[in-house]
Specification:
Number of strands: 13
Order of helices and strands: EEHHHHHHEEHHEEEEHEEHHEEEH
Mean pLDDT: 81
Number of helices: 12
Helix content: 25-40%
Largest sheet: 6 strands, antiparallel
Shape: elongated
Length: 325
Amino acid sequence: MTLRIWTGSTIGIIILFFSLTVTSVPLLLLISSDSFSISASESFFNKTESNLSNTTNGTVDDNNNSLLSLKILSDSLENRLDGAASMLEYAASLSEMRSMPNASLLNTTLETLHGIPPDSDIPKRIIAQKVVSFYPEIAGISFIMPNGDTYFMEPYSLQSNQTKNNLAFRDYFKGAIASNDTYLGDIITSTSSGLKRAIIAVPVFADGVESSGVLTGVLVGSIDLRLLNKEIQSLNLYQGQRIVYIDSNDTKIADSDVRHSANNDESFSNLMSFQNAIEGRSGTLIEYVNQEKMLVSYYPMDAIQNRWIILLMQPINSISVNENN
């Protein structure tokens, strides 16, 4: 596993090390300044409202302005995902997290508690609690055994609500095991919270080195997508404009339009803009979205090893109205 170096342009993360007298283990204290607030701040969009809306004739300048705005959104989101991955990688590298799990205890409590008891393997749980407490992007952390059995979840309420004890079927678990590296899984509906999540998985090795260490488990962070929805719904867009984030499997991640945000069945895979972005291209074109003629700007975002797509859409018939406002 390659430890990711992350620097955020507007996000301040200070890592301090301290020892708890109970466990005598070094832990990380993360001090975050609005860590999920948009790096492309609202002031940017206020200054460039014309960049997002005045694409009336599809001119080169107008298209470039829209793509610049999408690039800033993409860079911001990529930066924060890398930040979340960095925190998980650091947590996975700590000696307390790398110590061998209590497999015999798990065998006696897996079916009843969906993992180990809440007062067991406290050093691992404290590390997970610190990350969740100080890093808002990460809604929960799980430690999964090499066979896929859930060892623990934090907050513990997630573990007590878990409906599946073995998660070996999840693509993020398979990806982390196969690659021996950090892996961003497909968008899923969590079996513990019932909410739509993006999952980052990091393999944990006994000596911290994949080439020589024994795999002790997979550390998993659950990214709260509701924050993404809230973020882009707060942008000052013109009437009719809409921004959506989509994963490579055509699953909607976030939507600036509150009316559509709960529609998880909406598909974009038939759009040429989606297909172009999946191939790594960006641009602007006119096509029909939900039977309505739209000007669509598209931009790919490389999220760890995965690819997400950002679309900016506006009905053709609303562009002249917005231009005159």
